[in-house]
Structure prediction request, 254 residues.
Amino acid sequence: MEESLRFYTEILQMEIVEKLQKTEPTRGQVVTLKSKDSHQLLELNYYEDDTQFGTEYKNGEELDHLAFDVEDLLGTVEQLRKQGVEIIVEPNSIGSAIGWKEAFVRDPNGIWIELLERKPEPRKEMR
Amino acid sequence: MEESLRFYTEILQMEIVEKLQKTEPTRGQVVTLKSKDSHQLLELNYYEDDTQFGTEYKNGEELDHLAFDVEDLLGTVEQLRKQGVEIIVEPNSIGSAIGWKEAFVRDPNGIWIELLERKPEPRKEMR
Prediction:
């Protein structure tokens, strides 16, 4: 939890909305985060090993990645690289044929994080 | 993809923002969805088996579930049950000690979907 919190708040600069300890029904830690100017919530959960929710941690294929809008893809990636974040997919290596400026990095738990620069027009739903 | 689209658009009533076929770099299908009055996007991806992204499908523990706000938890769950959706955690069985009205259902791929009724006050970030 500490390592994940550091990643999402210090590196990705999300804000803590709510922090709960030993909450029912799981007795786990729950930290709710959001990005500035966003209503979207990301909930971090930690379960102790000896509880019914403390199952073996494994990465799956079903909920595959989280995506964040960024204003400056190249600058963001260089900043993250300096902070020790693993860059999985470098900018300009995928998506550029269809006008996407994007990269992927990895969070401390191995979760893929997509960084997406959408300019000048955001995608259809924002028009 | 067809079964998932039916679940998210007909049953959960999300709207299609964008629908792409055989897109680079994955050559996969990408359908972007949103709920009414929300800017949050949910992207469905289908990859053909013989591509580098068409790996074995398995459910993991890392990105655990998706949560949706609902106005009427009990009514929503009864409606979903009638439509054949599996209810994993019934209303009032967890969370009620701390004032949460919630339930969990399963999507066609086994992904847990949390339904959360937050009244009268939404959580801190919405105030």
In short: Chain B touches chain A at residues 17-18, 23-25, 32, 34, 39-41, 43, 45, 55-67, 94-95, 97-98, 109-111, 123-126 (CB under 8 Å). The beta strands of chain B are 15-23, 28-34, 41-46, 65-69, 87-89, 101-106, 112-117. DSSP finds two helices and seven strands in chain B. Chain B has two domains: 1-49, 63-127.
